[in-house]
Amino acid sequence: MALINHLNFATTLKESTNPRGSSPNGNIYFDVANNLIQLITADELATVDLGAGAVPNPLISADGITMRALYNFENARRRVNETLRKYKRGVKGSYRYAGAYNFVNGVKLAGTDRTKIRGSGFIEYGAAGDGETAIDRVYHGVLSLVDIQNTSVPYWALVLDTAEATLQAATWTNFVRPGDINEVVQVMGSTANGDAGAGNFDYRDRIAVVRVRSWQYNPGETTSVASGISEFSGFSGGYGVGETLNTANTYNLADVYGVSSIAPWDGMSLELKATPLVVSGFNESDGSFSWVLNNTSGGTTQQCAAYLDALTLQDTDIDVGTGTYNGHKGRIWYTRNAAGKIVTSSIGNKGLVITGLSPAETQNVIQTDNSGAQKTYPFFPTCEITVGNAAISDPNAWYQVMYKDGASLADFDTSGAITVKDSNNVNVTGNVQANAVGGKIIFPYSFDTNTQAGLSAGVDKTMVVLVEGDGIAGQALTEFTMTRSAIVSVTCAPPYDNNA
Amino acid sequence: MQSWPTDPIGSATLTLIANASLAGAEIRIYDMDNIPTGSLGTELAGVESCIGATFDYFYSYGISANRVWLQIMAPGFEEYGQEYTLTRDNTTLSVILQAELNT
What we know:
heterodimer; A: mainly beta; 4-stranded antiparallel beta sheet; B: mainly beta; 0% helix; 43% strand; globular
């Protein structure tokens, strides 16, 4: 079935002559004795005769009904049911385009039937006076505008501000219906007029924070303020919240977090430092970080991101430090920039640093410090020189990498030729058998900071690699360009020496 | 029906007029006697479809005033309901019907 609205109410709703639990024969019951309207859904009444025999009850809890449909249905029934019209009406329109309707004269929906209302908000007025003045309750309708998978359970809180401490202390409530949000939230209640279950609070001036988080999906969050709603009342508002597939997270949650987690995640923990951790080695100045993701097993940036994803789902303390921090109520720990890099979050002067990343993995993260400054790492292309079987089999074979065109007299094939240093400031030269890994000589290069041979940092440079044997392998020379690439692949493979 | 303190001592007419013609409107007048319980009470008068642009309700009155509920269901307008105390004089009551904008 589908949502029951003003277009289909006439063919989907039927007034019941009996209340729920007493053999109802329709899906709407006007309980005039108790000033209630019952929405009798298919889970309570499987079939209903709408005039042509029993059919499945079109009123379904998950799909629900709009207040506009209920208003129109009451109008239609009062027009023909002279018994019903002897009682004051229950629903009144306010502004249909915002889904704004009211329950007047003390009439209310029965119990949990309020959660079946869609695309609407409403005010419930007590019977006192004209029946449209004394407010018992106010329900604001929340409607998500971005897809949410039907297994995800979004949740919300009404807060005075969105400071992290406030959100940690807030009461968060799950929406009753999983999936796309289309449900009312009570924002005001008063028992002064006799509605004992209304509660006594007025949050109409608060901020609604609406979230959805689920594994392998990018989280969604927005607020009423961001949605242009400055004050709540009995209307429905659209919220730009939803979730999108996180294609980078392909892991099993049980592997990433919990008692059965496996490497490298079993070596990860999140800690709020009492004294911020000062981290150096960035392109920029040192950064101070209050939050530290301890990555003791050398997980990749993406594996760390998956761990942070898992933390946001935990309705428990996720801080291994002395404090307490609830993951479910807490922040989103990172975002991704246009290049797909992980950008850690800094909220309330508390930034996050991910430690334990390999030089190559540091290129996949931007660490945001306590001041909100984004810290990046020098770029270290990994140069991989394939040397061939002859050189590998020659115990005397050697290699050396030099700059082809250095400044002044620093050119290759001159006495001033400069040997390239790797990112650890070690000359790239040595014995092939001693240093080759998998048939390759591999070294990281400080692309953004190396100024050897009088050449500027951060620019492409032409280099020369020599691989020569002594007894088994011959000689080879290869020119290549060191670029700002993750991997720079070179082949310099001398043939077998048949003349030695 | 709510009993009068004494036998009727007179009669009067309440004329309902509105900001729109009442022709075609369903009009009911209830006694507010709470019969059945919680309801607007016994129906004293009414029409399924008002013939003229106005509606006259002729009633007898006693010593004490009587409260009634006026109900007007006019096509194109919100249902109108108002509590009203009948007087001993012929009276014209002008009501404002709100255009129905929320169906």
